[in-house]
Every structure is written in C-alpha cells, then in structure tokens.
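Before the break, one more example. Copy the sequence into your notebook; we will annotate it together after we see the structure.
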Amino acid sequence: MVRHLLLDADGVVQHRPGGWDDVLAGHTADPGGLFGDLVIEEAPTVRGAGDFLPVLADALRRRGITADPEQVHADVWGRIEPHVGLLSWVGELRDAGAEVHLASNQHPERAALMRHRLGYGELFDTCFFSCELGAAKPSEEFFEKVLDALRATPQEVVFVDDSTTNTRAARGIGMRAITWHHRQGLARLRRQVVPQP
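Here is what the structure looks like once it is written out:
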C-alpha cells in the first residue's frame, strides 16, 4: 500500500479545456507570444514572490490590451476541468488509508481558486503549492520541503507528474516517480501506482 501519493495538478488532476492560447487570441494577434512572456514573468510569483494579477495587468498594459486583468485571469487560468475519475480514485485511496496530496507549481491566485472553488483543500490530505512553499518543481528544495511537511522519507512517497523533468528530479532524491498524463488513461496509472501481484 502506498503511504503518500503526490499528484501534479495540470495534466494529471486537471486540464484547461481548449488549451491556453485560445482565450488570449481574443485580446491580441500574438497569443503565443503573450502567454510565453507571462510564463516567464509569472515565475517569481510561482515561487512565492507576490501576487500574479499585478504582473498580468502590467503585461497587458505594455501590449496596449485594455481587457480587465481579473477577467483575463478568470478566462485563462480560472478555466479548469478536474478529472472526475481520478478524483474518485483519490477518495478510494484515502479511504484505504493512503495519504494523497497535490504537489503543484501555482501562483497565489490560482492556488486559492483550486483549494477553495474546486474543493481540493477537502479532496486531498494536503495541497503543496509552490507559491506557499517558496520553491517550485523541479528544484530539490520543493521536494525536500514536501518531505519535511509529511515527515516522510523519499522511499515512502510516490510522485506523479506529466513532466519528465519533474519526475527525473523526484527520482534524484529517492522518490518513486511516474510520468503520466491524463490522456494515457486512469487504468494505466492505477497499475503503475499499485502494481498487481
């Protein structure tokens, strides 16, 4: 039986329907460029250095985009579809005695949305958000802070992420790590997390 299961959010527990660029295309002729810039500018907020909305507002203003930053944030970062089957399995694992945690790189506004509006604060034993830990995947510091909070050894944890960079980092400190995307199907993940004899 797995003692601690860590699940990434985007690509594993949830996805954004339609991708990321489609909504921004309604505001700019270069949605990919804007989103690419925002990923870079968002990085400090993902590591806990302040809120993201002022960063977004400034990026929109520099490009002459007059849209309300809060509405853009809601349309782009707030549109989330959880994977119901996976969350049901999370409940099964918790009922069986495992602890299941979210381990995700997020800025503060999106972390709050996920914890409260989507109910992840109740669905998971713990939500480990990078903005609250002050460290982001794939840094060793992120995983060490999670282990300290869990009072667990790396060997007691299974980590699931759709990023090979992140799973490689987790293996580097001794965790069992599985690279998995929701498109691969829940049955495959179940077999990998809890191998059948």
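The longest strand covers residues 99-104. The mean pLDDT is 94. Try to locate both features in your own notes.
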